[in-house]
Amino acid sequence: MTDLDQQARDVLDSVRYVVLATLDEDGRPRTSPVYFTPDRYARLYWVSHPDTHHCANLRRDARASGVVFDSTRPPGQGEAVYVTGTAREVGAAELDAHVPVAFDPARGARRFEPEELSGDADLRLWVLELEDVEVHVPAGHPELGTGRDRRVPVDPRV
């Protein structure tokens, strides 16, 4: 594991929201902040109402990307993780397998039970399977800076 892999883990562990980007029917991007839980740095879980705009977009086109960052950091000191992957609603038959890893009480997440995420319930569990993960490397990074901000691919998976 490299220092940048660890940086990605640290950001994913400490930040609670991902700005999730989906595609509207006309191809325009749509962003939504969603509270997430990472699972082994290979997937992100969140809970949403099935009628939300981003869920409708994902049912039509499962491609998604997002950025996880701490907006309180001063300019030039920001750290960000960019993710790209395929998202889907976790089906009722799969909930027993996914629920134990989808909610981390240490992050302040409320653990939902499968019956709260299926049938007539108001919420559904979603998962983004990460295909690409990159970290933000600022222009003036002491070792990796190139004079311009850039993204560097990493593999933070456990």
UniProtKB/TrEMBL annotation:
Keyword terms of this UniProt record: Oxidoreductase
One Gene Ontology term of the molecular function aspect: coenzyme F420 binding
GO CC terms of this entry: cytosol
Residue ranges of the region described as Disordered: 139-158
Q: Where is the Pyridoxamine 5'-phosphate oxidase N-terminal domain?
A: 4-134
Q: Does the keyword Oxidoreductase apply?
A: yes
A Pfam family (short name) is PNPOx_N
Bias type Basic and acidic residues, positions: 146-158
Extract the InterPro entries matched here: F420H2_bilvrd_red/Heme_oxyg (IPR052019), Pyridox_Oxase_N (IPR011576), Split_barrel_FMN-bd (IPR012349)
Q: Would you indicate the residue range of the signal peptide? A: none
- SUPFAM superfamilies assigned: FMN-binding split barrel
Name recorded for this polypeptide: Pyridoxamine 5'-phosphate oxidase family protein
